[in-house]
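Summary for the funding panel

The consortium committed to producing paired sequence-structure records for every protein in the target list. Below we show the first two records in order, beginning with the earlier of the two.
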Amino acid sequence: MKLPNLRLYDTQATISSVFGVFGVICTLSLAFFVLQPLDTEHMVITYDPESLRKPVVYGATAAAGLAGALAGALGFNSLGQRRNTKQGRSWLGMASGALVVVGALVLFYTWRVLSESAIRELG
């Protein structure tokens, strides 16, 4: 399989938009895992400490942040180049990358501040 040539600005724009869409999907799944059991009366997110929810939140944050950073960097690098015929993809990658990074950071901060592990009853 031939790897894409990242020296071409068209390729950078296309890969930027792909990473941007992947980052949006990761951020939406992160929002689902963080905000689904939010108790607005007590402003707390409860979770079972023995479940895989905490590693999933950390992993989705890392994946979204990395995808957003790559999308933003590749979109910014290819934006405005004369040989780039896909300027819209550069804009999509750069804008979605910025929104994904900010959204992932806000959701991760929400998780860190509001999450509390549930106490299990014995017997």
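The next record, for a separate protein in the list, is shown here:
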Amino acid sequence: MRYFIRSLKTFVYFLLIFVIIVAFFVLSGMTEFNIETMFRNGYASLWQIAVILVLIAAVYPKVSYTDYQTCVRTGGKNLRQSITAIMQEFNYIPEKDEDDVMTFRQKNTGARLSRRYEDRITVSLGGERVCVEGLRKDVVRIVSRMEHRLSGND
């Protein structure tokens, strides 16, 4: 269900960007507000564009969200405090801290909006290694910092 919601949010996000771009062209006078002359195939182009956006939205969550196991072992001292400090450096605030799972949300509303409110980072401490799950670009930065700091290289 989470995958479907992410896909739907992505579709709406790209559709909104498309509408803004078309509105810019119309308002700046680059084209007239007539679908038949604005697009090569007229109204048929709208369906073609919608299909392309649906295909992108269907694939995007699979590509942009990941879970990654770090090289950091879970047995370290003060691991929770260190992880919380690292997350705060990236403007994430703690959301929940239950048993072996910590979740964080972006502090900045603008950053949350740009991520379509899919900004939750989940850090699982169960097992031998720390597992980080969330938006790929954030997970890569966070895991890199964790591995650097918590392996004693800082």
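Regarding this second record: The first strand starts at residue 65 and ends at 73. The CA atoms of residues 67 and 133 lie 4 Å apart.
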